[in-house]
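Model it.
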Amino acid sequence: MNIIKYRKMWLYISILMTLVGIAVILIFRPTLGIDFTGGTLVEIKSQNQIQISEVREKISEGYKAEEILIQDSGENQFIFRTKIQSENDYKKFEEKLKTTLPGIDILRHESIGASVGQDLTRKAIIGIIIASALIIGYLAYAFRTVPRAFSSWSFGTIAVIALLHDLVFTFAVYTLVGRFAGYEIEGMTVVAALTILGFSVHDTIVVYDRVRENVIKNPQKSLAENANNSVNQTIARSLNTSLTVILVLVAMLLLGGATIKPFILMLTVGIAVGTYSSIFVASPLLVWWYERKKQ
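Modeled.
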């Protein structure tokens, strides 16, 4: 496969994916969960047979759509996420639950203040920035032995650019699915994003390490030739590794509980697009960067 030969096509496709992803995020606006906005989470179990549609019909009355989210978490078991923050409002809500849905047990009740949500938002952003900076620094150090014609810092910078492409597209898919499935941006969403960063950069490092070896071993060849050979030499390993992980995630997505499905969905999409970017974005972008630098 001569992937690098058509590098401009792959880069245009990736730019289009990123722009579409940004548009989807701006248009559909992902819903922030109570981890970020503050609110109350209540999980109940009904002793009677009841469908989630019936629960929504009974409980949602008197609330706006954005004020309460109801999810199925098991057989006759449901999770309510509301923007309720005061103790008085919660007591009224709890009374409504017990009156409207007789025979229920409240399994858990968690309240998060608005200030805690703001602090979590700030830490999430800082965490992703720090992770990206550490990746750039580590790759610059790890690839310090590349010939002087190449900059070791470019390996780290381009790897992070590819990671941002992965995160934007993943968040776009998550936002789109969440619009219809009722998924929110939660603390576990940030965990999934950081996991995707780690897994995606792992694939990219495998390819870049082979690029470094081939550049040192075959200095008479151009970077485009060495990069293309490196991609072909590592593509089977990247696909096999990612496929085994994705198969496990798909099984969990189909058979797992409702509470972990948003997390699993984001991981599945992120690892899939991360595998794509390590092959069709990171190396073509590295060659393009080097050629622009030469000019």
